[in-house]
Write a structure and sequence with these properties.
This protein is an alpha+beta fold. The chain has three domains: about 60 residues, OB fold (Dihydrolipoamide Acetyltransferase, E2P); about 70 residues, DNA polymerase, domain 1 (Orthogonal Bundle), CATH 1.10.150.20; about 50 residues, Ubiquitin-associated (UBA) domain (Helicase, Ruva Protein, domain 3, Orthogonal Bundle), CATH 1.10.8.10. It is about 45% helix and about 20% strand. The longest helix is centred in the middle third of the chain and has 18 residues. The protein is globular, with a radius of gyration of 17 Å.
Length: about 210
């Protein structure tokens, strides 16, 4: 089991990272909350990882905090929730907000996350409530540093790719990004991180 990686950030294109560990490049899938905490390409980073072994692939998932990895591991134990959906949940809502939804039985907020229907949301509330009691309160601390892309054509295109990777349809993602860009105005010069964050907020309100 690979539990942690420490190396240089070689590339990132949401939701994928490439971490260079002494000349070996590890491909890692990470939630957007982890992306927000990464620095520039070439920076030294540490990721808490979880390895999923399948017949056709070994999939490595990375997280900025132990709390997020713990929550990910509990999520994939829920019936009907695989690693991809668990990653989407952690990308669509902060860990502490997810915990509040489970504790409050807030199904209406959970269904706004891409890929989460009403039945899945209800199952998450029921199954995760006891799991969260067992692992204690999950808390994500810290702000969201600059989001440095792996040289995409434009921040808007990079943001759209990230939204599509999280489960949104191309037209839906493009419309959300365009609306955010228009509302901010041409002088704003929003980064990919800010475009993604504002678009997710807008989509959650209209979902």
């Amino acid at each position: 089991m690979i539990g942690r990686l420490r190396g240089k950030l070689a590339a990132k294109q949401a939701p994928e990272l490439l971490v260079d560990v002494n000349g070996v490049g590890y491909e890692v899938s990470a939630p957007m909350t982890t992306f927000y905490r990464l620095g520039s390409l070439g920076d030294d980073i540490t990721l808490h990882t979880h390895l999923v072994v399948r017949e056709d692939a070994h999939l490595l998932f990375g997280f900025a905090t132990l709390e997020e990895r713990t929550l990910f591991r509990e999520l994939i134990k829920v019936n009907g929730v695989g690693p991809k959906l668990a990653l989407g949940i952690l990308s669509g809502i902060e860990a502490e907000a997810f915990v509040r939804c489970v504790q409050d039985g807030d199904v209406s907020t959970l269904v706004r996350i891409p890929g989460i229907g009403k039945k899945t949301a209800e199952r998450l509330v029921v199954e995760m409530r006891d799991r969260l009691k067992a692992i204690g309160e999950v808390e994500v601390k810290g702000g969201a540093p600059s989001f440095i892309t792996a040289a995409p054509p434009t921040p808007a295109q990079d943001a759209q790719s990230a939204l599509e990777a999280l489960g949104y349809k191309p037209q839906e993602a493009a419309k959300a990004i365009a609306a955010v860009d228009k509302a901010a105005g041409p002088e704003a010069g929003l980064t990919s991180e800010e475009l993604i964050r504002r678009a997710l907020r807008s989509l959650a309100k209209t979902g």
